[in-house]
Each structure stands twice: as structure tokens, then as C-alpha cells.
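As a representative case, the lines below give one protein's residues and C-alpha cells.
***
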Amino acid sequence: MRRRTKPVRQLFQRIATDVKLGKGVRLYGFTNLYGCEIGDEVKVGAFVEVQKGAKIGSRCKISSHSFICEGVTLEEEVFIGHNVTFINDLYPRSTDGEGRLQTESDWKCVPTLVKKGASIGSSATLLCGITVGEYAIVGAGSVVTKDVPPYGVVVGNPAKVLKMLPRKK
């Protein structure tokens, strides 16, 4: 992986100096990347934000308007549909008990893992602290509150297992 030596400030795009980009990464307009790692041959659509500490494996596709927050790891070959949102805080608040704006020391980042080959449908929301198993599919618009089994297809709010896919050989 190469590390950027200066920020890229192209029209409608911001890539911070601490971003690690793999070979052949394709970035589209209105992206905001900082403090993250992106593997080889990844495609990142327009209007996507990838926060610090997020890790994206090789050959992933992240569709437009998606939000990959701190604490999210996408393994290789993961598909993220349009407008997918990850959450990294179980109990979000804007202020502490004294009424002051919270800082990073006032909350705990809860990690989320999406395993190899999984697909997340458009407008899905994934709460933190879960694992989406290998080659699982999360249906469009689903709200994922629990782990998704490998090869499982989940749908709904809260997402429930609809069926199991046959295992790859």
C-alpha cells in the first residue's frame, strides 16, 4: 500500500494525507477519506465517507451515498449498496453529563466486521458490534441488529434470516 504524502483536493473530493490506498483504487466525486486503509482494486462511489480506523479489503465495491465509520472492517470482495450506513456507538449523545459537547474520550467505538464476499443491500443500516458472515446477503432497507450467519440472507427491521444460501465449493 502506498501512503499519500500530501492531501488531494480535487474538485469535490478530499483524501487526507493519512489514507493508505492500494493499487488500482477508483474514487469518484464527492468522496471524503481520512485515516482509513483501502485495499487493491476497490471502487468507491460518489458521496461516500470513509472515516479514520476503517479498513476496506481488496476488490470491494462501495456504492454512492454510503457511510463507513470508524471501527468498520470490510474484508475482501464485499459489496456495499447505495446509501448504506454503519453505526459505531451503542448510546450516542452530543453532550456529556455536564452538558459539554462530547469528545472522543467520552464514548467507546464498537467495531463491526463484514466478512469476505458479503453483500449489503441499498439503504441498509448496520448497528455496531456485529459480524456479517462470509457470502451473506443483507436485504435492501434492512436494519441489522445481530450477527448474520455465513451464507445467510437477512431482511427486515430488525433483520431476520430469510434463508441460507448453498455453500461455495
In short: Residues 1-92+101-169 form a domain with the UDP N-Acetylglucosamine Acyltransferase; domain 1 fold (CATH 2.160.10.10). The longest strand covers residues 160-164. The chain has a mean pLDDT of 93. The two ends are 31 Å apart (CA to CA).
